[in-house]
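STRUCTURE REQUEST FORM
Protein name: Abhydrolase domain-containing protein
Source organism: Abeliophyllum distichum
Requested output: structure tokens
Priority: standard
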Amino acid sequence: MGAQAVKKYFTPKWEEFSSHGELEDVLEASLASAIRASAMQMKANKKHKQALEGLQTALDSARAAYEQMEVDLKESDSNLLNMTKQLDNVNATQKVAVEALEAANKEKRRLLEEAKSLDEEISGLRKDLELFENGKKEVEAGKREVEARLANAEADFVANFHNTEVYTNFSNYFARVGQQEVLTALRNDHPDFDVKSLEARFPPPDVEGEEDS
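Status: completed
Returned output:
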């Protein structure tokens, strides 16, 4: 490096170093410092580049992750939509099941009411049947009593028939029937015989007249 250049860049120190004879050392130190600074700058640039590359890699990875998240989100939305449809179907099925259950409970209540009404009707019919059975027993008892009375009356009538007015009337009736048969035979066998006097004595039978007498 020329003296003019050194003087240009190191003017404040020029006279001091020239007077002591240390200019070469200063130049070497400055050059070494510049080289170190350049090396550090290159190293820093390399680290910066590596940092940029790492950042780019991280950014690419983040972008890929974001894109995957979008894919996953779309798939999740699709799954959510399917789940919503399934839930709607389940809700519809549940609604139908609830309506069917309500209808079944309503029908059950109706059948229970009908069963209760039938029980009451059956209870009433049982009471009516019990009354009918009791009435039937009373009628049968009355019938047996009447039959017994009729049997007793019939036996008494048969036992005492010869002492009754009916027996006397029947006796007179059959006697007069016999008399009329005799008179008829006389008229037929003896047309010249006068039976008028006999007819006056033996008039024809009259049951009503006999009963009235």
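Reviewer notes: The longest helix spans residues 23-159. Confidence is low (pLDDT under 50) at residues 5-11, 17-21, 209-213.
Form closed.
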